[in-house]
Each structure stands twice: as C-alpha cells, then as structure tokens.
Amino acid sequence: MSAISDVNTAGADTAGQLHRTIDWRGAFWVASGVPPLVLFSIGGIAGTVGNIAFLIWTLSILMGFIQSFTYAEIAGLFPNKSGGASVYGATAWLRYSKFIAPLSVWCNWFAWTPVLSLGCTIAAAYILNALAPIPSFSETSPEVLAYIAAHAGTAPADAVAAVTAAATPAIRSWTLYSHTLGPVGFSFNATFFIGVILMLVTFSIQHRGILGTAVVQKVVGMLVIIPLLIVGIVPILTGQIHWDNYSPLVPLAVAYEPAPGMWNISGWTLALGGMFIAAWSTYGFETAVCYTREFKNPATDTFKAIFYSGLLCIVLYTLVPFTFQGVLGLNGMLATPIVDGSGVAAALATMVGGGAIIKTLLVMLMLLALILAIMTAMAGSSRTLYQGSVDGWLPRYLSHVNEHGAPTRAMWTDLIFNLCLLAIASTDATSFFFIMSVANCGYIIFNFLNLNAGWIHRMDNGHIERPWKAPTWLLSLGTIFAFVNAVFMGAGAKVWNPVALWAGLFTVALIIPVFCFRHYVQDGGKFPEHMLDDLGMQEADLVRRKAGILPYLVLVAGLAVVLISNWFFVL
Predict the structure, then answer these.
(1) What angle do CA 182, 184, 190 make, to 5 degrees?
(2) Handedness of CA 528, 531, 532, 536 (dihedral sign)
(3) Which of 14, 156, 466, 504, CA to CA, is 20 to 30 A from 430?
(4) pLDDT tens for residues 279-324?
(5) Rounded to an integer, what is the distance from CA 549 to the centroid of its chain?
(6) Is the distance from CB of 37 to CB of 371 less than 8 angstroms?
(7) Helix 344-351, helix 356-390: angle, nearest 10
C-alpha cells in the first residue's frame, strides 16, 4: 500500500493515503495545542527552581524557536511524508546506520504521546475540583473549633487536617485498585476513569481526519489562546505584578523549599533541571511540520506553519510564566496545588480578578486548553507512527488509514499505550513527573539527532532544491544547541527522578527489537522502495557517505556530554 502521491494529485483517488486538505493555517491551529503545555509543568518548574522560573521559560522558548529553522529546512525536502522532523531527520542518519535512524522516529513518538495521559490527568483533576472540591477550613472555622472542643488537646493544625479529611468527598480518595510499580505506582481511581472518557472524546474527533481536526482546533484554539493572553496581560495592566518576586535572581537552595540558593553546582543542577523539563513544552511547536503530506502546497505551507506557530509560542511562553510568578511570588508558586498542577487553572483565573462566574469560566477555558493539547499530541504522534510504518521503521499494521485519511491504527496504539500511562500519572505528582522526565529524555535525543540531521542533509543531499533554506549561522547554532540539550538531559533528568535518565535510555533501546522485527522479519532486510522517493534515491545510493566519520564522532561526543554532565552536576 503506497502512501506516496504526487503533490498535484489532490483530486485523485486517495484511498489508503493521507489527504491533502489543509494549508499552513490548518497546521497552525492544530499546533495551537502547544502553548497550553505550559500548564503541565509551570508549577513543577516554579517549585523546583524558584525565582528564575520565568527566565527558564524565556530562554527555553528562544532556543526552541532557533532550532525550528533547521526543522523547517529539512521538512521541505519531504513534501510526500508526514510524521514531522523525526521522520525527515531519520533519513539523514540512514546512510550511517540502520539502527540510529529509527531512534529519531521512536524518540519523537514516545516523547509526544504521553501528552495524552498527562493532559487527561490534569484535566480530570480540574473536573474533580469543580464537581467535588476539597473544602477549605482555617483555625477559626466553626467546624475546627468544634472539633478542638470535642477533642481536648488537639493542635489547631491537626484539627484543620482532621476536619478537612472528614469533609472531603469520598470520590477524591476512592480507588478501585492501586499498586506500586518500581519507582512509581499505578492507580485506577476517579482521575483515571475521567481521563479515559476525555481520551475517547479526543479519539472520536481525530477519527474524522486532519481537516475535521483542524476545524475543531481552530474553534477551541481561539477560546484558549485569548484567555491565555488575558491572563498574561491583565495583571500587568492592573498593577498586580510585584517586582520583588523576581529577585534575588538565584535558584532555590533545595527544590520545593522557599529558601534562595546560590549559583553553585547544586543551583546550576536545579536550573538545568528546569531547562530540561521546559524543553518538553517549549520545543513542541515543531509538530506544525508533522502534516507536510497533508498540506495543499507543502513548498510554501511548511515554513509558514512552523514559523507562525513559533511566534505564538514565544509570546505565550514568555508572558504567562512572567505574570504567573509576578502575581503569586515564591511562596504562592510552592503551594501543593500549584506544584502538582491541579490548582494552576484556579490560580490563573484569580489573577484576572472578577467574581465566581468569571473564575469558573476561566477554569473551564483552561480545561479546554488541556483538551487542545491532547488533540495536538494525538494528531502528531499518530502520524509519526503512521509514517514510521510506511517507511519501514515500525510494524506494518500502523500504515492503515480510514476513509477520512486518519491513521486509525496508529491512533488506537496511542490510546492503548496512554491508558497504561494514565494509570501511573493518576497516582501522584511524583509519578506524573517521572513519566514526563522519561518522555523528555526521548525528546532531547530526538532533537539531538535532528538538529545534526540539518548539516548531514546539507552534505549528502545538498544538490536537492529546498523550498526554504535556513541561514547557515542558524543551522550552526542549532547544532550547538543539540549539545546544550544533551547537558540539560544529563544534568537535569535526575532533578525530577533519580532513575529518570536510565529509564529514558532503556525506553530508547526498545526500538531495536521493534525495528529488527519490521526490517528483517517482515521486510526481509530491505526498505520499502518509495521511502527515498523524495530524495530521488534508491537504497543502493545509501553507500555514498559524504559526511565521512563526522556523524559517528557527533554521536560519541553527545553520549560523552550526557554522561559527564550527569556525573558533574549533583544536588
């Protein structure tokens, strides 16, 4: 089954293929689910690094924007592929190793797909907060005073805890089954089952294909982006920003403790941990080039999609964290509901003022923001699986699309995998950030391989016309950032979980048996004939390696940077 057709055959029979139905605006709206990813870790990063949180977000999105120019160039080489930069970059590495190339596709997929489970976890928490809120009591509340009178000698703080526990709706603590699983746990609780419903709703929307998805995301995106802009701007205009909340400009001494630290090794480790986890959100707008095979005019739509998506992310990823910190301050950002994400929407709503109705409305819009992010993730990650199958990296069954041009088998794979992750993420904040940090190890590796794929394509495929060509200095800066990202991973993953780095590397290695099954068992050691059509090449042409040993040296250097960073930076 071929997934390749000429760019100009939009009106031809497209059965079994993705459909060319959107322009760059459609991809922009699908990628509009990336800015709400700030809601996933804004509390966690603030609690980990303290006053430098706003700076972490700003630096991270600027790095992501510069890196995107490399992705825009290599995406233009492949007008007949979907799946994003990981697929386009994998082709550059194919000349140098059959086993390095599929890492790009695999790492990108398992980096993006947890957005489904993590987003549903936070969204479910918002829904529970609205339908079954945990009551709030103080030491002077009548219920607390009555408890102290009935239990002489009870400390006020203990009385508040006891009364709160007694008045908390039973659904908040209900669990069908839970258990410990290595460094994390899993739980089939209320959060899990609400999350399942949200996933199924998302799946039903995606089932209609990319055009239907883009239409829905345009409507939801407008409802989400505007409130995020309001949250970012209104507190500045109304004078709610407290400028002393940005100083001293040093990381915390210890994560989640309100004492300022120093720019020593421990402080730098926390800062690099913040840069590590922020990258998972801020770099994500590269998903705008996942839909090259579905663009009406990929030559012009590809660059516009990623460029304008990047500009939107720069605005929101700098503005929202800046305002968030300026209003809440260090102690506010360290509050438990902020750190675990469940209270972020309510905090953002409070920042713009207004009564209970306005607060409820904004919380619901933040819930829509999470749904938007989930839809973006399913659209992008399923197409990565689809194209990975079409190109011979992943099992054949993932190549199927329905009558709407939606890769449904890839979507079902996403769904089932994320049901497992959802059970883990629903347990507690530790499990939530463990999943995020393991996923981000894959994302950093994906970025490392693909930022270097830019110059490898220049050397090996320099003769191929590029619809858009990045300035050489930007391509070079992206290559430098590949190694900077390696430092983030080596030093920063341990901030979120002591075994996150090693769990991430183990997950990366799982592609080897998967690829071997597809390539050697299903395909007899040969790649599909159409895989290199966009480059005008045959498999026999792969023996010509103009970059020589440079790609191998880059891989060794990257691994060395990760290991040395992990050894040098300690808490």
Answers:
(1) 135
(2) positive
(3) 156
(4) 998 998 887 766 666 667 766 777 777 888 888 889 999 999 999 8
(5) 33
(6) no
(7) 130
